[in-house]
Every structure is written in C-alpha cells, then in structure tokens.
Write a structure and sequence with these properties.
Elements lengths: L3 H24 L4 H15 L7 H21 L3 H6 L1 H23 L6 H12 L3 H10 L6 H27 L11 H20 L1 H11 L2 H21 L4 H11 L6 H25 L3 H6 L1 H25 L4 H10 L5 H12 L5 H29 L3 H5 L11 E4 L3 H12 L4 E5 L2 H8 L5 E3 L5 H6 L7 E4 L4 H14 L5 E5 L2 H9 L4 E4 L2 H14 L4 H26 L36 H10 L8
Parallel strand pairs: 1-2, 1-4, 2-3, 4-5, 5-6
Helix pairs in contact: 1-2, 2-13, 3-12, 3-13, 5-6, 5-8, 5-15, 6-8, 6-17, 7-8, 8-16, 8-17, 9-11, 9-12, 10-11, 11-12, 11-13, 15-16, 15-18, 16-18, 17-18, 25-26
Length: about 625
C-alpha cells in the first residue's frame, strides 16, 4: 500500500494542476489547452513534483487524440467526407510536401546532415491535430468553412505519418542498403483496413441494437470504448496511426441511429485524456536542454510559425478558399504536432540524430503549440468580424416542412417542443454553429443559415412552409427578417416572437399574423401560481388572469390605433410608456399614491379647480 501512495499523490497533483490551470487560462481567454501545457511545465520541469512515468502518461494521454478523432468522425458522414476529398488529398498533400521540403532545405545549411534535416523538416511540417481541433471545438468552429479546411489538412497529416515512419529505416545510417518494400506487410495493412470498413458497415449497428435493447447503460459505455480502442489498435498493428483507425470507425458510425449515444458516452473520456496528453507534453520537457539552448528555442518556434503560415496561406488561396478562410487556416495550423514527438523519438532511436537534439526539437514544438492561441487570436482579428457568417457551411439537404422556424434559442426550443409533440414536422435554421451542434445531438433537423438572406430562406423551404416562426433574440434582427419575408414572400403567415410592448407595436405595423411578447404568458402564469399559494380558488385565479390578459390586449390595440400614421413610422415608431393595468391600492381599498406625486387632497382640489399641478419639489 505504501508503494502506491506516491503514485496516487502524483495523480492527484496532475488532476489538481489541470483543474486549476485549465480554469484559470479559460477565464483569461487563452483556452484550456495552454493551461494544461502550463500545468505540466510547472509540475514537471519547474518544481519537479511529478518526476516519474512521463512517457507512460503521454501514451495514455494520446488516447485523448484517438477519442477526439472518433468523435470528429461521428460528425462526418461518408458523403460529406467525400466532398472534402479535394481539400484532403489536394491541399493536405501540397501542404505536407511543400512545407516539409522548404523546412528540410532550410535545415540542410545547419551541421545536421541531410538525413536529419529531412526528418526534422517533415516532422515540423505536421501540425497538432489535438491542439488545433481542441481550439476549433472550444470556439464552436468545427462546422465553419475554415474549420473543415483545417480538419482536411490535419487528416492528411495523420495519414502522412505512416510513410514518414516507414522511411526512417531508409534514412538511418547504413539503412539504405538492403531495404525494400515488404509486399506482404503492405497487403496485410490494406486487408486490415478493409476488415475495419466491413465490420463497421455490417457488424456495429446490429451489435449496438442488441446492447440498446438490453437496457444496460454501462454496457453501452463499455461497448463504445471497445469499438474505439479496437479500431485504433487494429490500424496500429496494420502500420497506420491509431487516430486514423478511430476516425474511420467514427465515419462508419456517422449515419447510425446510435451516433448521439456513442458521442455522449465517449465525450467525457475524450476531454479528460486530451487534457492529460497536454499535461504530459509539459512534463516531458528537459529543463536543462531548454536552459542551455533557450535562445535557439525562442528563435526557432516563431520562425516555424511564420514559415508554415507563409506557405499554407497562398496554398489555401490556390485551392479556391477565400482570404478569410486562408488566413484563419494558416494561423491555426502553424505549430508542430504530437506526431512530431513520435517521429523524432523514432528517429533518435534509429541514430539519425542524438537524444539532445530530440529534446531540443520537442521544446520547439511545445513552444510553437503554446504560441498557437495567440496566432489564432491574430487570425480572428485580421479576418474581420463577418468572417464567421461568410465561412459557416450551409447544407440544406432534406430541408423543407410545413413549419419553418428561424432562431433556436430558449424561446424557440420551448415552442418547438409543443409543435413536435403534435406530430408536425419542422425545419429549423439558426446562425449559431455551437447551438446547431448542441441541438443536432438530440436529433433536431437544424441547419446553419441567416434568416436575413433570401437564398437561405429559399433553401430552407420558405415557399412550401405553411407558417414561418421568427424566434430570434434581437429586435433589429427580427424586424429585418420580417421585412425581407414580407417583401419577397408576401403570402407567408408570420408568427413572431416579440421583445417588449414597443416591439409588438412595431411588428403589428409590419403586418405579421401573430406576435407574442416573450415574457407575457410566463409572467401571467407566475402571478396566477402566486395567487394559488395565497389561497384563491382556481376559478377566481383563471378569471383574474384572463381579465389581465384581455385588458392588456385591448390597451395594445388602442396604442396601435393611436400610433398608426401619427408620430412614428414602421422604421421609427413612436414609443409608448408602460403603464400598469391596475393601480396599486392600500389595505382599505383606496388607490396608493404614486411616488413623487402630490398628496391626494391636493390633487382633488386641483382637479376641481381645473388647474394644472406643479411638479413636486
């Protein structure tokens, strides 16, 4: 038992450090990834409170990358993956080859030898899948155009690690002689890949159907972990990367009925292990190498970022991406990657370069990772405020129903529950990528799109919709959507969420079919329940609530009639001042005097004399 105490203490320190640093860095806007790296550096090289098992922790943490690629695969149907083939095998291939060649050429001028320069150059050409995808996921940008482009490049880089590792024996000293391609190993690799594809297509769905019918949640969780790890292990044994195996398994299950259940089961493990991976990277740094070569690291890491970004930006433009997409992609993928650790470690074992150079290279890669959030922030600022709306991918396959809802925030979500419970089908569009992702987990047919665009409304099926519900948050956005639909599709019946009384009057001026203030019915219900607690009969409560609702509607209609064509317009209507429907009263039933008003006897005297009261002093 005493031997296990230090191990448990180190685990507690790692977890505690990750919690504190992750929370702190998230609060100050630098992201949890950089916080985990910082925690690892503090616990390891700086204070040396965790000094054993860094490599084992790193290997366990790499499972976080595996789980992350599985979840990404779950969100990419094979048809959509095929649609990205140009970015994957075009842009991704060009990035690896050109960046690797440029860096190898630059490093060949150093006293490293061409073999070491080639390995280091192509190792630096690989970006961090875990780091970049974590940043994209935290920002809710995986569904953006630049998110898809970045993912395509990262996916090809994961594939590229296989031939790069296979080339190490050729580059090792004396390894160019007697080394050839083993046809049997190549055949076994592709056989394993085929077996994984066939198993995913014909075995996984029946397996999860049986487990779901059994009703044991812990068994479903175990099955999800088994599928991910078995797929990853099969690909690793076949010579591919574990991340690739998990990604393929995810893609094969992307159209499964159990996709959302699998994602919910895997996600906690993914987050924990991915954080452990970044902590382990920080723990593995050699502080002595950093201290002796700090100036090289400080120069090399920014140079790596600049060279990779300078190559990737024009490549994205060459492959048809917009300037915003190219800039964001170039500034989120300039860092070194976790597969560089694997490549450099294998190269050191093959005597291509020594262990000190390996530690130096790991430090450069780590510092480049630490600088990535700053580069990504710079990309956001330079790409402009409207980049997200321009880049978000719009896929309206299968859209079109009797009901079209625009805006899926809290109000829209509750309204949708009523409509879906009645059996009606509906199409929902929203301009928040993160909200779309969250809603999609529960099976809602929700699409990205702005209701302020005519082409989006047409693609979402506005012409065949019997009613359009506008449930957006901001009054100015709601008004713009209503104006567009009234102008382009005048026969459409519009049911609109209103922000307040003045917004309701504005919407009535625009001729909507129905409008409702977002807090009206909930406030009436709240007041009624309070009366119930005070002992009133349900029939009396219903009578009071109906009376207040009716008087409010009558006053709104009167205010609408007074304001029509007088003192305002549709664009700038005259505002009304809220007034109570019932005046507050005293305990004896007399009306309570408003604050700041003259005494009641004085007001009565003034009223009888016909004079106007002076304002209170």
């Amino acid at each position: 038992m005493e031997e296990t105490v230090p191990l448990f203490l180190e685990i507690l320190l790692i977890l505690g450090g990750g919690i504190v640093a992750g929370t702190l860095f998230k609060r100050i806007g630098l992201g949890t990834v950089l916080g985990y790296l910082f925690a690892g550096i503090v616990l390891g090289p700086v204070f040396r409170v965790v000094e054993s098992g860094q490599s084992e922790i790193l290997h366990i943490g790499e499972l976080g990358v595996v789980f992350l690629l599985f979840i990404i695969g779950l969100e990419l149907k094979p048809s959509r993956l095929w649609a990205l083939r140009r970015q994957i095998f075009g842009l991704g291939l060009a990035q690896v080859v050109l960046t690797g060649a440029a860096l190898s050429l630059a490093l060949s001028f150093l006293p490293l030898g061409w073999r070491a320069a080639t390995v280091i150059g192509f190792g630096f050409a690989l970006s961090s899948t875990a780091f970049a995808l974590q940043l994209l996921e935290e920002a809710g940008e995986l569904n953006t155009r630049f998110g898809k482009t970045s993912f395509s490049v990262l996916l090809f880089q994961d594939l590229a690690i296989v031939p790069l590792l296979a080339a190490l024996p050729l580059l090792a000293p004396g390894g160019s002689e007697g080394t050839g391609i083993d046809v049997r190993e190549v055949a076994m690799s592709f056989a394993a890949l085929g077996a994984l594809v066939l198993s995913g297509r014909y075995l996984l769905n029946p397996l999860f159907r049986i487990l779901a019918n059994a009703g044991a949640r812990e068994v479903m969780i175990a099955a999800a972990l088994f599928v991910v790890l078995a797929s990853a292990l099969l690909m690793a044994l076949a010579g591919f990367s574990m991340a690739m195996g998990a990604f393929i398994a995810g893609v094969l299950l992307a159209e499964s009925n159990y996709r959302h259940e699998l994602e919910a089961n895997i996600d906690p493990f993914r987050g924990l292990l991915l954080g452990l991976f970044f902590i382990a990277v920080g723990l593995s740094l050699d502080i002595n190498v950093i201290a002796a070569n700090w100036w090289i690291i400080l120069l090399a890491a920014p140079a790596l970022l600049l060279i990779k970004a300078a190559i990737l930006f024009p490549l994205c433009l060459l492959f048809g991406e917009s300037r915003q997409t190219a800039l964001r992609t170039a500034l989120i993928l300039p860092q070194g990657g976790e597969f560089a650790f694997v490549l450099f470690s294998a190269a050191s074992s093959a005597a291509i370069f020594d262990g000190q150079i390996g530690s130096l290279l790991v430090s450069v890669v780590t510092l480049s990772m630490a600088l990535t959030p700053l580069a990504d922030y710079l990309g956001r600022r330079l790409s402009g405020e409207d980049a997200e709306l321009e880049e978000l991918e719009e896929d309206f396959a299968g859209a079109g129903a009797d009901i079209l809802m625009i805006g899926f925030s809290r109000f829209g979500q509750m309204a949708a529950q009523v409509l879906l419970s009645s059996g009606h089908d509906m199409t929902i569009i929203d301009s928040s990528a993160e909200r779309i992702k969250s809603a999609g987990r529960f099976g809602f047919r929700i699409y990205f799109g702005s209701g302020l665009r005519r082409d989006v409304l047409l693609a979402a099926g506005v012409r065949q919709a019997k009613v359009v519900l506008v449930c957006t948050n901001k009054p100015e956005v709601t008004n713009g959507i209503v104006d567009l639909i009234r102008s382009e599709f005048p026969e459409t019946r519009l049911y609109v969420r209103s922000y307040d009384r003045n917004h309701s009057l504005t919407l009535r001026e625009r001729g909507v079919t129905f409008e409702l203030r977002e807090t009206l019915e909930s406030a009436l219900r709240f007041g009624g329940e309070t009366l119930r607690e005070l002992g009133l009969e349900p029939s009396r409560i219903a009578e009071i609530v109906d009376d207040v609702r009716q008087r409010d509607a009558e006053r709104l209609a009167l205010q609408q009639a007074r304001g029509a064509g007088v003192g305002g317009s549709v664009l700038a209507p005259s505002r009304v001042t809220p007034e109570p429907l019932s005046r507050p009263q005293r305990g004896d039933g007399t009306e309570r005097q408003p604050r700041g008003a003259p005494p009641r006897y004085l007001r009565e005297a003034i009223s009888s004399s016909g004079e106007t009261a002076a304002p209170p002093s």
